[in-house]
Design a protein that fits this description.
Blueprint (H helix, E strand, L loop, with lengths): L3 H6 L2 H75 L6 H14 L3 E7 L3 E2 L3 E12 L1 H12 L5 E10 L12 E12 L16
Antiparallel strand pairs: 1-3, 2-3, 3-5, 4-5
Helix pairs in contact: 3-4
Length: about 200
């Protein structure tokens, strides 16, 4: 290697080449000793950062899913509460079906027959049907159906059949039509089956 005095004797472009080579060597040494490990560490940190970003993105997506599930559960709970408000419990069934009979009596319909039918179980509710036969007028039947519509609990009138009866005399004003139908209420299944109320008795 040229000494400083020997370097001065060289032509200037050789001096530049030698200085550049020395600087390059020093830079290479600096790179391999200090900068290369730092760059490797930066690369590793970037990989960790990317992985962390993926985890965060996945967590945010899961939070959105959980929030949606929570909203769905709250909506279902609200719908269930609404359902409970219109579907009686088994212990209330007797009173609900009695109210059906009272609605018939208060509509000036004379009850001829009340017969219980087997209950029908569903997943979350049970159907409680009773067969009824009444006589009155068309106006009385219409008034009765309107009262059933206004009951706070769900009551369905199915299989309604109207048959003309007396059309002359005093009976024409009170018993001109006979009606048979099935009144059904839908019971929310919250209690065990053995606590179910017995079939309602006819209103006298």
């Amino acid at each position: 290697m040229a000494t400083p005095k020997g370097l001065q004797k060289l032509k200037w472009y050789y001096q530049v080449l030698i200085v550049a080579a020395m600087c390059g060597g020093l830079l290479a040494l600096l790179w391999y000793q200090y900068l290369a490990p730092i760059e490797l560490d930066i690369t590793a940190k970037n990989v960790q950062l990317d992985e962390l970003k993926r985890v965060i993105a996945k967590s945010i997506e899961q939070q959105k899913i959980l929030a949606q599930i929570k909203m769905d559960c709250e909506e279902l709970e609200a719908r269930l509460e609404t359902l409970k408000s219109v579907l009686p419990l088994a212990k209330e069934t007797d009173e609900v079906l009695r109210s059906v009979q009272r609605a018939a009596s208060s509509s000036a319909l004379r009850i001829l027959r009340v017969g219980s039918r087997p209950i029908i179980d569903h997943e979350v509710y049970t159907e409680w049907p009773i067969d009824m036969e009444v006589i009155g007028t068309y106006h009385n039947v219409g008034s009765y159906l309107d009262k059933i519509r206004q009951l706070p609990r769900i009551v369905n009138i199915g299989g309604l059949r109207l048959v003309s009866r007396a059309s002359t005399g005093e009976a024409a004003y009170s018993a001109s039509v006979g009606a048979t139908y099935t009144a059904t209420t839908f019971v929310y299944r919250e209690e065990p089956a053995d606590t179910a109320a017995p079939p309602p008795k006819p209103v006298k």
